[in-house]
Structures
1.
Amino acid sequence: MVEKIETQEQFEELLKKEKKFFLLKHSLTCPISQAAYQEYQKFADAEEALPAYFLAVQDSRPLSNEIAEKFNIKHESPQAILFSNGEARWNASHWKITKRSLAEAIGENQ
């Protein structure tokens, strides 16, 4: 299941409580982002043990910008980021966000 987050406080709480999780920056108006979201959802449904979250860029621009700045990751949308132990370990954007690429990211970042 994919859970929506909207605030910097929610994100900071995730960094504290989750050892490892995915976050998707999702644009509500972009067809590429919709395709990435569907792949992300398929991955999350198959990998229930790994928490998966998303933010809607239009609703949470300050949070999206904060993540880009704090982790030195150029903002893109859609963009999937794997966080582990409070650090961004992997990210991909646009058509590179697939169920397979997300699964491979987990394997590469044990």
2.
Amino acid sequence: MTNAAIDIVSVTDAPWHDVQRVFGTRGDPSSCWCQYFKMSTEEWKTASRETCEPLLKQQVKELDPAPGMIAYLEGEPVGWCAVEPRPNYGRLDRTRVISGSPEASDDPSVWSVTCFVVRVGFRKRGIGRALLGGAIEHARRGGARLVEGYPVDPSQRAKVTSAELYYGIVSQFEAHGFREVSRPTPDRAVMQLELRV
């Protein structure tokens, strides 16, 4: 955990070159750009940085509210969290990870946190936790009734790679008051936070 200030801003308030620094040029984030849950299986088969980065850039310009948050540590862009109304993630309903959610998939008052990216060299400093806090407030301002996440439970696996943690981890969600509503698999949870009655 770091004692330095972590600032969380809407991606619309971040220069695009800061977003590019967070997503990087290597690894899964550099090719996905948080488009996996927005594309069909066929579209995803041919997806690349060249197709996904412009899609996120267009979504940042056109979607209101914005599709995510950027974290800054002492002015350096270090992380990303995707959070939007659940109907924006068409592929999410076709994955096992969401099974057990009691919410209707077309309810725009339910927002999903689908992805975290923290740059190498800045991990284990509380950035993911800070991003989740920013995502909750972003959803609240956007009119969300409920925020839902699909984190990994590292205590249920012998080994978890950093690439598998892009959903976040259970303890991170628990720290913000989320409650578990189902376990699609022993090491994955569906967790929810009610924002208003």
3.
Amino acid sequence: MSHQRWMIYGANGYTGELVARLAAARGARPLLAGRNAVAALATELGLDHVAFDLRDPDETRRRLADVDVVAHCAGPFVATSGPMVDACLATGTHYLDVTGEHPVFEAVLARSADAEAAGVVLLTGAGFDVVPTDCLANLLHAALPDATALELAFSAPGGMSRGTATTGLALNAGGGRRRVAGVLVPTPMGTPAREVPFPSKVRQVGCVPWGDLVTAHHSTGIGDIVVYTRVPAPSLLSRLIRFAPVRALAARAIRRRPPGPSAATRAATRIEVWGEVRNAAGETRTATLTGPNAYDLTADAVHRAAEHLLAGTGGRRGGAVTPGAHTPATAFGPNFLTGLEDVTVHAPRR
């Protein structure tokens, strides 16, 4: 096989396919990969493809040996991220993922010293989870450097992919989380709640265990963090979902759904993000952003992140990004947002 500059692993999944199609439309030529079923898409797009299973570490390392960057889009990341990171460290391949699972963020960021030693960039959360929120948090922190508290809220209509919905089952079963004095603290899902002035209108939102509880803490150092979105009213199902047999039934129902939002749905829906920081004196700064559907933003962000990692020195040994483990903002700076298609940032204000 000839030398390949970057790979999309999980190109047979909903998000991976979106990344592949966008990259090909922009003239890029990623290598498509997955455990199976990537040949048809690769043939349609005129791209090379390989199939391998991450449970085979020797084969995984062999397939990554000639790859500079891998965009890891195959969940559940709590199971797949570790083997892929191990292989990337062994082969000197830069890694990025689109996880939304806070245990995965913690695990990847904990390997920063290993990545530095290997001359590798590990970038976790390179999609909607958590590019907009992480970058907005860092813009706010720059506007109020002594901030001690951060609140973030997002609205992402349009529905979820099967993979996102399946991951959400496990997260919801674990209940809510917020960060208090640097420590993750369990809290009932949706608690606390508040009204948030999004750009389009004020919405009632509740606390959720979003990735910024890890990533924004890592990138800003702020110790008190709460993330909000719309949370359905408590129901019998929401109380039963913590039991494994109920989750198994729900997962089977999810597998019967379409792979993800249609192109028409994505085109008709947009995200909104709001953020606020506060310091010990009670000073605040707020900012908002609007952008395309979360999955379209993810595809754009992943492609641009891969191109950034390939830039400068041919892609190996850090490129323009310092080797180590990163969030989007620590890798590329918070203004990475402004380079994304159809994203508008409303700058921090008092």
4.
Amino acid sequence: MPKLSQGDKAPDFTANDQNGQPVSLSDYKGKKVILYFYPKDDTPGCTAESCDFRDNYQSLLSQGFEVIGVSVDDEKSHKKFESKYQLPFTLIADTEHSIVEAYGVWVEKNMYGKKYMGTARTTFIINGDGIIDKVIEKVDTKNSSQQVLDLLA
């Protein structure tokens, strides 16, 4: 599936969060959502990105945003990641790869000449009507929340 872009309708999904509770994008109708896709729990870049969203979470909430992280890790891995770094937002376990595929971020990657499939670090800013307002493909993991705010300024 091709990667989604600005103006596209954000595909709805339902999957379990870090607490084993089903969460749907449609649960957030009427709210602005920062939906960020990251490769793996508790790795340096993903931790920096998630902790930046954590550190700026209240500021994002005050501007009407909800934050949702998505990776293909399972609920148990997400729970451990959430607890270790006190992450105050929802982490979706996309173990079936249905969400990463629907958003076009399940891609072929190349590390040291070895090709494999993985999640392209990407952030989607979705408005209250479920339309994608912005897509960030070159995510600055240490300043991901500021990157979002700068785009919307």
